Amino acid sequence: MYFTQEPKTRREDFFDMDEALREFQRYVRVSKLTLVTGLRRYGKTSLILTGLNEMGEDYVFLDCRLLPAGMISVKDFLKLLIAQARGKVRAALMRVEEVRLAGLGVRVRPSYETLLEALKTIEGKVLVLDEAQELRRSRHRFDKLLAYIYDHLNVRLVVSGSQIGLLHKFLRLEDPEAPLFGRAYAEVRVPRLTRELSLEFLREGFSQHSISPEERLLELAVDSFDGIIGWLSYFGYASVMRGELSEKLVMEVVRMASRLALSEFNHAVQGERYGEVMRIVSLLGKARWGEVKRGVEARLGRIPDKSLAKVLRRLVDMGFLEKVEGAYRIPDPVLARAFREAD
Question: Domains in the chain, start-ordered, CATH in brackets?
Answer without folding.
Answer: 11-189 (3.40.50.300), 195-265 (1.10.8.60), 270-342 (1.10.10.10)
